[in-house]
Design a protein that fits this description.
By secondary structure, this protein is α+β, with helices and mostly antiparallel strands. It has ten helices and eleven strands.
Length: 356
């Protein structure tokens, strides 16, 4: 496991601790092997900022990019007793053909003190697009639960702005206008008009593949949060990518067990509801999900990935001062995840029959 060392003025670290909600980066140095980089450092996330083991957002300042990235995320994975659900999920999406941030576990030290095992994640931004040889295009983050593709917020009140819940990561204000148009198409057209026009603004195949991924991994927040929209400048259509998938594979975001049948096969947001109302789109979704359930979301397929992840973190568990996980705990969690996959797979195959 790669060792990451951060060196920071204790006064600046104190400053972050006094205001955990600040988004203002403070200067620090990151050492990886024999290489040193000037960085900006700040805490990231929402619930995790209140925990003892916090997550970090890092921007590279000198040099401006490292390995093709300008920024990275170091996730604490504090509520995940396997430390691996996020990576397992993102790798799963990558496997089924959905754009997904790459990730790897690292051992983090700050000013010489071990802070434990972290998951380094790519930032979903223009630099990721360049690394993947994808056309540049606007990237918009779904930053809260109002990002539900609806005219109404989750409290069933009319939104004051159609793009509530969204934040531009790469692009400008006109890109929000395009998103507004997308939401209007989703909510105001007749069924026939919607079926004709939606393929012009949304990559249907990739959206339904993403939907199948969220449904399989059972991310409760994934339908109205924990995603980003990327508008491919060559096709003009939106694609969607997952983000923050630690509350998956049988547990919620707090690490508590979630029944295998908790999330319906159709998910829940306005866009999905409209798509699955169309017999053609519904049949396409059935085909996509059926293939994934046969080839990708199976105990046999995921067993190797789980073993690799657990074997990777196991030798370093004792170095993490914030967790109480040992090899026996990991063994139990492996069986928990495999049991979830088996039950969820069976449940979804049964639901596929009803979906026809």
């Amino acid at each position: 496991m790669q060792k990451y060392e951060i060196f920071i003025n204790p006064k600046l670290l104190n400053k972050l601790d006094k205001d955990i909600w600040t988004n203002e980066h403070v200067p620090a140095v990151l050492k990886i092997g024999s290489n040193q980089y000037s960085i900006g450092l700040v805490y990231r996330g929402n619930v995790i900022r209140k925990k003892r083991k916090k997550s970090y957002h890092i921007i590279f300042e000198k040099p401006y990019t490292v390995n093709g990235a300008h920024e990275i995320h170091l996730n604490a994975e504090f509520n995940d007793c396997s430390l691996s659900r996020n990576k397992l999920s993102l790798d799963f999406f990558d496997r089924i053909g959905v754009i997904s941030p790459h990730s790897n576990h690292v051992l983090l030290y700050i000013n010489g003190f071990c802070k434990g095992i972290y998951l380094e994640l790519e930032s979903f931004d223009q630099f990721l697009l360049q690394k993947r040889n994808l056309p540049l295009g606007s990237i918009i983050y779904a930053t809260n639960y109002h990002a539900n593709f609806s005219l109404l917020n989750p409290e069933k009140q009319l939104k004051t702005k159609l793009v509530e819940g969204y934040t531009i990561k790469y692009g400008d204000k006109k890109d929000l206008s395009h998103l507004e148009n997308f939401i209007i198409i989703t909510n105001t057209l007749s069924n026939e008009e919607f079926e004709q026009q939606i393929p012009q603004v949304l990559d249907i195949q990739k959206y339904l593949t993403w939907l199948a991924g969220v449904v399989c991994t059972q991310n409760f927040d994934g339908f109205i949060h924990n995603y980003a929209l990327y508008q491919n400048s060559e096709t003009g259509t939106y694609e969607i990518t997952p983000w923050d998938y630690d509350g998956t594979w049988g547990r919620d975001l707090h690490g508590k067990p979630l029944d295998y049948d908790y999330i319906p096969i159709t998910g829940y947001n306005t866009l999905t509801g409209r798509l699955l109302h169309s017999p053609d789109f519904k049949e396409k979704y059935r085909d996509i999900l059926s293939t994934i359930l046969d080839k990708d979301f199976t105990v046999e397929t995921q067993l190797g990935a789980i073993d690799d992840l657990f074997q990777g973190v196991k030798p370093y568990l004792h170095l993490d001062p914030y967790i109480k996980i040992n090899a026996k705990n990991l063994g139990r969690e492996k069986e928990f995840i495999l049991n979830f996959i088996q039950k969820r797979n069976t449940f979804l195959k049964q639901e596929l029959i009803k979906l026809s």
